[in-house]
Design brief:
single chain; alpha/beta; Spore Coat Polysaccharide Biosynthesis Protein SpsA, Chain A; 2 domains; two-stranded antiparallel sheet; 4 helices; 10 strands; 22% helix; globular
Length: 186
């Protein structure tokens, strides 16, 4: 196993239930471990935070109510201390080499500030959930590769319009330079 990476993984939870625990368990199996994991809870009422109290090396921050994705992530980024921040949805199960691959891409491309992940459907891992976002002329967001077979795509690195924030690495400096997420938007 490699040394811990200079990265904080942030998971915004709202009633994530058992999926949150599965997500955190998958992070403990990474070939590269993060410096810290922050779970910021948006006022859950399902007991999901109580379900993870026994897990180690996790910082839990509780918000009084659901302030939304943008606010919660911005708060957690401000609390973190690392060069990179990784956002991960609580229903995501990370492949054991997921974080290592993101860190390697960031190290190989110092001129790039955002690194996305290939997401597979939780209910059918042979299908793509998303390979990044693209925008249609109508202004609607489309998930690249959505519903397609994993066999139709390689693990190639490519430029995309935007990375889906459900599993993404940001260089802290770039995230802060744009003042994080627009909290009025989402």
């Amino acid at each position: 196993m490699l040394e811990p990476a200079d990265v904080t993984i942030i998971i915004v939870n709202w009633n994530g239930g058992d999926l949150l625990r599965e997500c955190l368990t998958s992070l403990s199996a990474q070939t590269v471990l993060p410096t810290e994991i922050i779970v910021i809870d948006n006022g859950s009422s399902d007991g999901s935070i109580e379900m993870i109290q026994d897990l180690h090396n996790i910082t839990i921050q509780k918000l009084a109510c659901n302030f939304g994705f943008a606010f919660a992530n911005n708060q957690a980024v401000m609390e973190s201390k690392t060069q990179h921040v990784v956002l991960l949805n609580p229903d995501a199960i990370a492949d054991p080499k997921w974080l290592e691959s993101l860190i390697r891409a960031a190290n190989d491309h110092p001129d790039v500030s955002i690194f996305g992940s290939r997401q597979l459907m939780l209910s059918n891992k042979s299908l793509i959930d998303g390979l990044g976002d693209r925008y249609h002329l109508s202004g609607l967001v489309q998930r690249d590769g959505f519903g397609q077979s994993v066999n139709n795509y390689t693990n190639e690195k490519k430029i995309i319009f935007s990375a889906c924030a459900c599993a993404v690495l940001y260089r802290r400096a770039a995230f802060e330079a744009v003042s994080g997420f627009d909290e009025d938007y989402f």
